[in-house]
Every structure is written in C-alpha cells, then in structure tokens.
Write a structure and sequence with these properties.
This protein is of the alpha/beta class and 345 residues long. The protein contains 13 helices and 12 strands. The protein folds into 2 domains: 160 residues, Rossmann fold (3-Layer(aba) Sandwich), CATH 3.40.50; 148 residues, Dehydroquinate synthase-like - alpha domain (Dehydroquinate synthase-like, alpha domain, Up-down Bundle). The protein is 46% helix and 19% strand. The strands form 3 sheets. A 7-stranded mixed β-sheet has the order 1-2-9-6-5-3-4. Strands 10-11-12 form a 3-stranded antiparallel β-sheet. α1 links the parallel β3 and β4. α4 runs parallel beside α8. The longest helix has 21 residues. It is globular and about 60 Å long. Bound molecules: nicotinamide-adenine-dinucleotide (NAD). Nicotinamide-adenine-dinucleotide binds next to α1, α3, α4, β8 and α5.
Length: 345
Amino acid sequence: MEKITINTPGFRSEILVGERWDAVAGLLPEKDVIIITDDNVSRLYGDKFPKIPVFSLSPGEESKKLEVIEYLAEQLLLAGIDRSGFVLAVGGGVVCDIAGFLASVYMRGIRCGYVSSTLLSQVDASTGGKNGVNLRGTKNMLGTIRQPEFVICDPKMLQTLPEHEYLSGLAELIKTAVIGDKELFDLIEKSFEKIMSRDTDLLAILVTKSVRFKGLVVSEDEKETGLRRILNFGHTFGHAIEMQKGVKHGFAVASGMVLATEFSFKRKYISLVEKERIIRLLERFKLLTELDLTGNQIGKLVLHDKKKTGTEIHFVFTQGIGKAIVEKVPVNEVLGFYNKFRDKK
Ligand SMILES: NC(=O)c1ccc[n+]([C@@H]2O[C@H](COP(=O)([O-])OP(=O)(O)OC[C@H]3O[C@@H](n4cnc5c(N)ncnc54)[C@H](O)[C@@H]3O)[C@@H](O)[C@H]2O)c1
C-alpha cells in the first residue's frame, strides 16, 4: 500500500492507494458518521458497508445539483449529526463531489473521507479537495475546496466498473501523463493489454503516479491561483463537449485534449511527432467522440467557463509530453481556432 500525503495550509490529507476499501471501518470516528453513496455502488458493495446510516443517490451527473445537497443536509439534521459529524463518501467522482461539498457547508463544515470507487475518481477527482455541483447546465459552478481526511483507492473495486466508465478514467490518467509525467506516458503506451485487462498491480502503480503528481501540484497551489491550472488541460473544450453532447467526463476531456494538443501544435509548442503520439494513444483506447459541435455551441459554454477572466481564458497548452504551460488567450482566439479546426475536417 502507498500512502501519499497532501499538505495544504493547515491541513493534511492522506491518499491510501492499494488499501482494501473495507479497511475504511478502522479510519472512522466511533459515532455520528453517515455514508453517501449511489445505488450502483451500494448494490455491489453495500453488504460490506460499516453499520451506519447510508444515503444512496441516483447514479450519475444528474445528482450533482443543489437540491440534492439540500435534501442530504436535511437528512443529516434529522439523523442528529452535529459539528462533530463525519461524512464518508463511497463512490465515484459524482458521489465524492457531492459528499465533499455537503461536508464543507453543513454547519459551516464537518469532517469527511472518501472511498474512491472509479478509475476517474482514483486518478483525479478524489485528490485535491475540489468539490461541487452543477448549475443549470454549467459544470461545477457551485463548490468549495476542502480536503478529505483520507481517500482509499482500492484497485480491486475497478474490476466491477462498466467498460465505458473505466475508459473514461483512463482519459484523466493520460491527461496527467501529458501535462506532467513523461515516464507515465511511456508506461501507458507500452501497457495497453495489461491496462485493458485491468491488471490490479499495474493499476495501483498508475493510480499512485497520478495521485503523486496531482498531490504535488495541489500542495503547491491548493486554490488554483497558478500552477494548479495545468490540471485543466483539455477541460476548456472538454466541459463544453460534456455538457452539449452528454458524453462521460473522461471522453469529453479526451476530445478536449485533442483540441488543446492541436492548438499547442498550431502555436509551435509541440512537435508533430509528439502531437501524433498523444492523439494515437487516445484513439487506441477508443476515447474520442466526433467533434461536430458548432462554434456557437462551444462559444456559449466557453463563455461560462470558470477559467475565464473578462474576455480572456486561462488556456492550458502542452509543451511536449510531460510539460504544460498556461497562457491567457482571448476567448475569440480560442473560438477562432476551434472554427478553423472544424472547417478543415
Ligand atoms: N473534484 C474534482 O477535482 C473532479 C475532477 C475530475 C472530475 N470530477 C467530477 O467527477 C465526476 C465524474 O466521476 P466518475 O466518472 O467517477 O462518475 P460517477 O461517480 O458517476 O461514476 C460512474 C458510474 O460508475 C458507477 N460506479 C462507481 N463505482 C463503481 C464500481 N466500483 N463498480 C461499478 N460501478 C461503479 C457509478 O454508479 C456511476 O454509474 C464528474 O461530475 C466530474 O465533474 C471532479
């Protein structure tokens, strides 16, 4: 088991990769704990949950809304949970985002921890403390940054994931490799078969590398005033694609990464060979969706992007595999690039 510590001002969060998920019972306070999960996860794992109250949500992005937070807060109140309470999330990125947000606002903040059960949440969503819900079609508009006390990433839980959910997580893993870890990129490239067969030992290594990188970034810039922005590689276009086309987060980010890579190539930040390696890897894992959105559809969503300040957007470029930079780019230039790219296809 690997223990990765994330130190942010005044807080220490521990990510336990390779730990058995049911060891969570030993990490919980004795009383006033509630579990938040979703119906799929509770169907598969519920019989081994610690014997404490469980609130199970409808699976999927639809649950990421303010009404659900309000409903859960009422349930906490009815269950007599006070400021000494503890929220345990058992689930993927949706459940962790909801539980983290709830824990950060209920009675101005109570403790929380996660059992992270999807590849996407293990390699990305459950590290770093960001949480939130969507607002009328715009992703993660309401949220806070609050570190969970612990996160368990048990690679065995990934065996039960449906194929498209597993692949969706791979996209965020590839993102980490492109922006910060060339060795990880090489390893993913040469481990196609083992990745597809969900080799547990390899998955523990891949998750560890990804969490280590994200942990370093978050420890340096928890509030995303600088370095942390690089984690948004592929996300400017990705969020727009996710909301417009309704595809899973990872698939949308994968297509967003293609666009960000092409934009980086256009600016001569990346060589043709590296550009092709990145796109080929995404294609090999069948992560790409057709880019058929109009400039207007993309534009509307890019204008609401949280990375936008005034008429400019913090756009993440790759500077070759393993390196990224963030530059302020006028929104018009981002859209101009997209329109030209689409016309050429
Ligand atoms: N907070 C962050 O920093 C951050 C980062 C990236 C993504 N996100 C968010 O994460 C969300 C996506 O997360 P996700 O892809 O994990 O989605 P998810 O939580 O909806 O899980 C995907 C599906 O897998 C099921 N599932 C979960 N664990 C399972 C298991 N072990 N076996 C079988 N089925 C299982 C769920 O019920 C669901 O149907 C998005 O809302 C995105 O915005 C947050």
